[in-house]
Structures are given as structure tokens and as C-alpha cells.
Amino acid sequence: MRTLAAMKLEHRRVNKMTLKTEPKILRRSLATIIDYGLYLIFFSWLVMTYGRPNDEGGYTLSNDPKGWWIFIVWIIYFPIIESISGQTLGKLLLGLRVVTKNGNPISFVQAFKRHLVDMIDFFFFGIVAIITIKNTPDHQRVGDLWAKTIVIGGDSVICTNCKESLTLTPTEIMSKEFVCPLCRTTVKM
């Protein structure tokens, strides 16, 4: 059993470090596929349910107020939910979260900016996003660069005391502090 003096000494042993993000291209891609897959299901349902057949064999929602639901659901699912929780369903399932560059929750404007340029990032099967993620220091895509955000989750850090390599959850990263399970040092980021 540890003494009170040992616990106080341990509590004072706090190290400062910065987080180095990782690309996470596969997990980010899968999260995007999940999110836009869900959005596509809604879009298809709306057009097929309320659209009118057109000459090309598809459906059209021209001059129909129900067409606004496509934009409304996009705003709710992407910018609003992401600004409230830092995650869409895809990111939640894959252990990812969007934060500001200093680790704080993002605002609605930042979430809106991130997703406003999704089509640029997704151009030619996501090659623009892959290139920018691989070639920016914080592994940001175009939307992240404009919004000044980063994607975290499963990032590795090395304990400054025992040099153990640790993988942090988004919650640990957001709290900006964790206790190394090996040496029990409190590490602040």
C-alpha cells in the first residue's frame, strides 16, 4: 500500500508533452464511407418516395419543398452533430474525433467548413484527401486545413518518464492528461 507522501510525490511528477497525430487513412476513409453511405440511403429514400419519374428513368424533386430536406439533413448530420459531439456515427464507430488544433471541441462554423469542401477532398476517389493527409504535419485534409481542425483517436504518445509507447483514446486526448499505466506518471499534453 502506498503512503500519503508517496501519493503526493507521484501526483507532483507531471510531465508535459505534445501529441503527434497519425494519418489514420483507412479508419478515416471507412468513417466517411459509413457517414456518406447513411446520407445516401436517406437521399435515395427521399427522392424515390417523393420524387416524380423523369424521362431518363430516374426521379426528380424539382420545385418541391421536400428537396430542402436533403440540405437540412446534411446540416444536421454533419456540421451540427459533429460540432456537438466531435463525432459523426462513422467516427464514433471507428474511435475517431474531430478537435481544434489545441485539442478543444470544434465549433459549428469549423464543422461546417470541414464538410463544405468534402467534394474537393473526395475528388477522384479521395486522392486529394489522401495526398493532403500524408503531406501535412498534422495529417489534415483540405477541410481540416481550412477549419483549423485535426482528427484524433488511436494516436500514439511516448511517456516522457518510462519511454513506453501508449495509444490514447479520443477521451484521453481531449482531457489533455493521462496517467501512464506502467510508471504511474501523470502526463499533460
Give the SSE layout.
Elements: H1 4-12, E1 14-16, H2 25-50, E2 52-53, E3 59-60, H3 68-85, H4 89-93, E4 97-100, H5 108-116, H6 118-121, H7 123-135, H8 142-147, E5 149-152, E6 155-158, E7 165-168, H9 170-175, E8 177-179, E9 186-188
Parallel strand pairs: 1-9
Antiparallel strand pairs: 2-3, 4-5, 6-7, 8-9
Helix pairs in contact: 2-3, 3-5
Describe this structure in words.
This protein has helices at residues 4-12, 25-50, 68-85, 89-93, 108-116, 118-121, 123-135, 142-147, 170-175, and strands spanning 14-16, 52-53, 59-60, 97-100, 149-152, 155-158, 165-168, 177-179, 186-188. The chain has a domain at 23-153. It contains nine helices and nine strands. By secondary structure, it is of the alpha+beta class. The chain is elongated. Helix 2 (25-50) runs antiparallel to helix 3 and helix 3 (68-85) crosses helix 5. It is 51% helix and 15% strand. The strands form four sheets. The chain has a three-stranded mixed β-sheet. The protein has a two-stranded antiparallel ribbon with strand order 2-3.
Which regions are unreliable across 5 or more consecutive residues at pLDDT < 50? 1-15
E-strand count: 9
Cα end-to-end separation:
29 Å
Radius of gyration from the CA trace?
A: 21 Å
How large is the count of helical segments?
9
Oligomerization category of the chains in this entry: single chain
Mean pLDDT: 84
What string, H for helix and E for strand, traces the elements in order?
Answer: HEHEEHHEHHHHEEEHEE
What overall form do the CA principal axes indicate?
elongated
